[in-house]
Amino acid sequence: MIEAPRVRRYARPVPYFLTAHGPPDAYTDGPELYENALGGAATVREHWIAPARRLGLPILARLATEDVTVRHTDLDTLAAEVVRLSQDWTDSVPGDATTLHLIDGRRFEVPLLVDLLHRADHLTAAIRLARLAGGHVWMGSI
């Protein structure tokens, strides 16, 4: 039996970020409370946007065409989308798929599912902060 080669994913620069903001004031859209990486362009396209479209998750699917600001009133919907997407990853991401992380010039292979769920936790933390502060979440590329 011929085995297919193991898929290797290499980390790219991280152009997609997420931020949590407090409520707007007279001068800003709200102070930034939290920032973290959502993922590289290829990872976001393949593992966030494509499944979001397939699963009918409208907020996350919008990342395909624009930066997304999720108002306080829509944070529960975004949280539910993150839960649904995470469940889909658990069912669909191959157990041997990995991604490469560079830390202080050293290369580390990390299970792709672990990486995706870790980044989903970043988004969940941003949602919680924005909820508590009465603010919003922003996702997009810089």
Q: Give the oligomeric state.
A: single chain
Order of helices and strands: EEEHHEHEEHE
**How would you sum up the major sheet?**
4 strands, antiparallel
**What is the residue-mean pLDDT, rounded to a whole number?**
91
The structural domain count equals: 1
Tell me the overall shape.
Answer: globular
> Which strand-content bin applies to the residues?
25-35%
Major sheet strand order: 3-2-7-4
Task: Give the termini distance in whole angstroms.
Answer: 46 Å
Strand tally is 7
Q: Please report the number of helical segments.
A: 4
Share of residues in helices: 40-55%
As a whole number of angstroms, the C-alpha radius of gyration is: 16 Å
Helix/strand structural class: alpha+beta
Extract low-pLDDT stretches.
1-12
Can you describe this structure?
By secondary structure, this protein is of the alpha+beta class. The chain has one domain (10-21, 34-141). Helix content is 42%, strand content 26%. The chain contains four helices and seven strands; from the N terminus they run βββααβαββαβ. The strands form two sheets. It has a four-stranded antiparallel sheet. A three-stranded mixed sheet has the order 1-5-6. Helix 1 (41-55) crosses helix 3 (75-92). The chain is globular and about 50 Å long. The termini are far apart. Residues 1-12 have low confidence and may be disordered.
